[in-house]
Give the backbone structure.
Amino acid sequence: QVQLVESGGGLVQPGESLRLSCAASRSIFNFYFMGWYRQAPGKERELVAGMTPGGPINYLDSVKGRFTISRDNAKKTVYLQMNSLKPEDTAVYSCKLASSIGTFWGQGTQVTVSS
């Protein structure tokens, strides 16, 4: 089993930035998928950013150029840097990691963008 703990959410104004962190309880070196999803009230969950070893990083069209996903194997952490936040980015953000031993989700962190 792998536990994922997200942090970094909060309330910000439009145009501001946040960095979300997803800390894993064990090494993430062998995970073959890492991604951030979000779900806004009344909407379906959507993939915001996803990465696979050696493969392209995929971003939701509406966040391209503003969000960046990255990983730090030594810290067992996946990040989502979010810049130029917009009200429509408001949602609960969750990380997902997948490996040969299973697929794991974090508990989610609320991001609210409002003036």
